[in-house]
Design a protein that fits this description.
This is Glycosyl transferase family 1. GO terms for molecular function: transferase activity. Keywords: Transferase. This protein is mainly alpha-helical and 40 residues long. It has one domain. It contains 3 helices and no strands. The chain is rod-shaped, with a radius of gyration of 16 Å.
Length: 40
C-alpha cells in the first residue's frame, strides 16, 4: 500500500481527499448536535 502511494500520486490524492471527507464527519461542531439530539 505504501509503494502504491509513493509511485501513484493520483491514488495518493484520491485517498487523501476521501480521508479528509471521512474525518470531517467527526468534527465537534457536527458531533455535538448529534449528541444533543441523541440525549434529548
Amino acid at each position: 500500500a505504501i509503494k502504491q502511494l509513493i509511485y501513484n500520486p493520483v491514488a495518493t490524492k484520491t485517498m487523501t481527499f476521501h480521508a479528509r471527507k471521512k474525518v470531517e464527519q467527526f468534527d465537534w461542531n457536527l458531533v455535538k448536535h448529534q449528541w444533543i439530539k441523541l440525549l434529548s
